[in-house]
Amino acid sequence: MTTLMQRGLSRRRVEDDRFLRGQGHFVEDLDARDALHAAVLRSPHAHARIVAIDVTAARSMPGVRDVLTAAELRAEGLHPLPCVAKVATLAPLIIPPRPALAEHRVRHVGDPVAFVVADTAAQARDASEAIVVDYETLAAVTDGAAALLPAAPLLWEDAPGNLAFRFQKGDAAAVDAAFAQADTIVAIDLVNNRVTAAALEPRAAIARFDAVTQTFLLQVTGQGVHAMRDQLATVLGVAPARIRVVAPDVGGGFGAKNFIFPDYALAMLAARRLGRPVRWVSDRTEDFVSTVHGRDNRTTARLALDADGRFLALRADTVANMGAYLSASGPGSSTNSPGTSMGGLYDIPAVFMDVRGAFTNTVPIDAYRGAGKPEANYIIERLVDLAARRTGIDATELRRRNLIATFPHRTAMGMNIDCGEFRANLDRAADAADIAGFAQRRAASEARGMLRGLGIACFLETSRGAPGEWAAVRFAADGTVALAVGTQSNGQGHETSFPQVAADLLGLPIEVFRLVQADTRDVARGHGHGGARSLHMGGEAMVRAIDAMLGKARALAAQLLQAPEASLRFAEGRFCLADDPAGRGVGLLDLAREAPGALDAEVDSDLDLVTFPNGCQVAEVEVDPETGQVHLLRYTAVDDYGRLLNPMLTIGQVQGGLAQGIGQAMLEEIVHDPESGQILTASLMDYCLPRATDLPPLDITCIEVPTASNRLGVKGSGQAGCIGAPQTVMHAVLDALAPLGIDGIDMPVTPMKVWKAIHAAR
Predict the structure, then answer these.
(1) How far apart are CA 341 and CA 206, in angstroms?
(2) Per-residue pLDDT tens for 622-645?
(3) How far apart are CA 427 and CA 421, in angstroms?
(4) In the structure, how many helices (H) and strands (E) does the chain have?
(5) CA neighbor of 222 nearest in space, from 245, 193, 239, 196
(6) Is the CB of residue 646 less than 8 Å from the CB of residue 501?
(7) CA dist., res. 371 & res. 341, Å (int)
(8) Quick count: other Cβ atoms within 10 Å of Cβ 354?
(9) Considering the chain, what percentage of its residues have pLDDT values greater than 90?
(10) How far apart are CA 615 and CA 617, in angstroms?
(11) d(Cα 101, Cα 83) in Å, to the nearest integer?
(12) Dihedral angle at the C-alpha atoms of 431, 436, 442, 447, nearest 10 degrees?
């Protein structure tokens, strides 16, 4: 039998069959009929002192089994939630205690105050509303830059001036010298608006405790079960081995589900106290005020150019709003992560960034799709577009002059880019978007009284996430092969892509393989998903595990065939004697049946190399000057994700990322009332996500430039759309508004914001 080549095949996702049949296993679907239900009482204030809490009425309500406040947590010895980010700050990183339930003070709307467990969800919710909390409201600050001003309300005594950290990277002296001799300097003030992941599946968890073994089981909608286990062990004060964390099907993560939250530790504690499983499920508004947010940076940036339009230096000074607490890896999204891609695809000799992290009375910030790379690319691309307008050099030509052209290339920030076709992709995108025909399309729009604009932008992703990964290959008695891997799917299609790779390497039908993931019992180690790392890091580990397994199998086959190992050829799932005309051999699955467990193999891959997905994208918009409404008419992307294992899955990932990036540029923003600190966009009635009618057909072309940084030649595709889209859309909008003299506007370009800019210009 000849096995169909699987790599490079646009195969439909095998997991979609059960999803479409309603047979997915999300946390809320899991059978826990004996479970109690939990509800969290959250602060209605952005900043307040807790004078007193009275839970008497709540404890006596029907069905209530337990009510937890900070007092109970102290008695149980619960520790604060950790921040595990490792950032080389100029002074020690200030990490205030983040208790699972607020003690003495609440510091953002949604801060958890009490945890109620009852027989039903409705009873738990009713009891939580019967708790009486006496608050003394305090002045609040929600803007990061305002929080650093001398008169701002102070969140933490240990953080004078609300400064969480200061981070610097690059060569400041070289940047200053370059600016001193520049012919042109452009400067820009940018706001990278606060957004939320808004995954289709809100956060949820079911906690169980076994009193005999003194062990916990947490079933959770999460992205990285091992890190969650270890952090929960710290909070609960137990050994990690006593906690098993399992993530079933996950309805979207986008970074936010990589982290632990107070609700998970509280459910586990309640399960131990009550001897019953405890289920907690967030609703949408609760997700908005309790799950981490993303972005929220204010940056002043400058770009220096010589007389020929060559880039000499880049400097970016940023205030990063961190929220009320430091989330698990929150500081990394404005420091380490953007530092890898600052300067984008351009050959800039000197780069320097300075970041100040600010505490505010808002939901904590952490990784959101791209986690710093979108912010860095937004800075350089907005500067390049501004430089094109100031110098009179065509925006496409200015980019072409400065794109990295020789590889390998070491950037000013120390990244070693091994390959790419940056200039060719720029030209391909210009052709695919028919930039040459834009003038005619603009004239047609003007004839209808509309403003038309075209924007072009490049992007550089630096994908890896955590270095290293674990994988194993195990043969089951039923003839299937389990592929266990420490990375994790939260909607990307790993149950299809990983078996595709294994089917190719082993010459077996793809149906033989099944993916094992997201269970700390069945997967020994792993870093989950984050940083577009799964096929790069997890795929590399799996390839190495398959190599180790084949080494064992070859030795066993040589014994059975009474032949030297070197004389065996492996193909189509069989070991054969290379020079035997009779074709004597033995199948891999037959070997596994003959020696159960003997072929199983696992590896820890030490791969730590970064890959560099990249591309060029073009957007075309039409603006109604009477209403400020922006219509996205065309979107073209020419991107390089290395070797494509399943082009259909890759394009699906890029489409999703583009939708989120376009959403940030045009629609999405977490808004607070500046006086009270109330969140004004805490539901989908007020927080506008892109719908199908907001998006044109997305024209995506993938150019394969395989990288040598991993055996599969792949580059991460999961974050790229979110990284490339915001500046591309913004350039198109600014191009449309340029005839009115408008050269600056911040995301999102809502109709009201655009209308105000038009009327101010007039």
Answers:
(1) 39
(2) 999 999 999 999 999 999 999 999
(3) 10
(4) 20, 30
(5) 245
(6) no
(7) 11
(8) 18
(9) 97
(10) 7
(11) 16
(12) -130
Task: Identify the pLDDT of residue 322.
Answer: 98
Give φ, ψ of 524 to 5 degrees: -65, -45
CA angle, residues 379, 385, 390, in degrees to nearest 5? 120
Distance from C-alpha of 679 to C-alpha of 676, rounded to nearest angstrom: 9
Average pLDDT, the chain: 96
Question: How crowded is the C-beta side of 267, counted as CA atoms within 13 Å?
Answer: 30
Q: How far apart are CA 341 and CA 611, in angstroms?
A: 11
pTM of the model: 0.97
Residue at 663: amino acid letter: G
Instruction: Give the strand pairing for 278-281 and 243-246.
Output: unpaired
Structure tokens given for 43: 């602060």
pLDDT digits (tens, 9 = 90+) for 348-394: 999 999 999 999 999 999 999 999 999 999 999 999 999 999 999 99
State the alpha helices, DSSP H only, in 131-192: 144-147, 172-180
User: How far is Cα 309 from Cα 392, in angstroms, rounded to an integer?
Assistant: 10
Structure tokens at 648: 């259909």
**Nearest-5° Cα angle at 271, 266 to 275:** 160
CA distance 588 to 269: 47
For CA atoms 328, 330, 336, 340, give the dihedral sign.
Answer: positive
Cα separation of 569 and 557, whole Å? 11
Cα 526 to Cα 546: distance, rounded to the nearest angstrom? 17
619 contacts 731 by C-beta, under 8 angstroms:
yes
3-state secondary structure of 616: strand
Other Cβ atoms less than 10 A from the Cβ of 212: the count is 5
Distance CA 334, CA 358 (A): 11
User: How far does the chain reach from its first CA to its final CA, in angstroms?
Assistant: 73
> In which band, very low, low, confident or very high, does the pLDDT at 1 lie, cut at 50, 70 and 90?
very low
State the pLDDT at residue 3.
44
* Whether 717 contacts 642, CB under 8 Å: no
- Using CA atoms, how far apart are residues 125 and 596, in angstroms rounded to an integer? 52
> Would you state the structure tokens that stand for residue 168, as one six-digit string?
């610097």
What token pair was written down for 415? Answer: 């990244």
As a whole number of Å, the CA-based R_g of the chain is: 27
Tell me how far CA of residue 53 lies from CA of 122, 135, 379, in angstroms: 21, 9, 46
Query: 474 near 484, Cβ under 8 Å?
Result: yes
Nearest CA among 229, 278, 284 for reference residue 258: 229
Count other Cβ atoms within 10 Å, centred on residue 427.
Answer: 14
Q: Which two tokens stand for residue 50?
A: 């807790």
CA distance to 234, 283, 350, 378, per residue, from 656 (Å): 35, 23, 34, 19
Which residue, 513, 531, 532, is CA-closest to 471? 513
Would you tell me the crossing angle of helices 225-236 and 262-274 to the nearest 10 degrees?
A: 60
Coil, strand, or helix at residue 662? helix
pLDDT tens-place string over residues 687-714: 999 999 999 999 999 999 999 999 999 9
Structure tokens at 676: 């009270």
- 522 vs 520: CA distance, rounded Å: 6
| Interval 540-581: pLDDT, tens | 999 999 999 999 999 999 999 999 999 999 999 999 998 888
DSSP string, 690-740: --GGG---EEEEE-----SSSTT-B---SSHHHHHHHHHHHHHHHHHHGGG
Helix/strand/coil percent split, the chain, to 5? 35, 25, 40
**Is the per-residue pLDDT at 97 higher than 70?**
yes
**DSSP-assigned letter for residue 151:** T
For residue 711, count other CB atoms closer than 10 A to its CB. 16
User: Mean per-residue pLDDT for 423-451?
Assistant: 98
Three-point CA angle 201, 204, 209, nearest 5°: 155
Quick one: residue 344, left, alpha or beta (phi over 0 = left, psi -120 to 50 = alpha)? left
Contact predicate 455/615, CB 8 Å: no
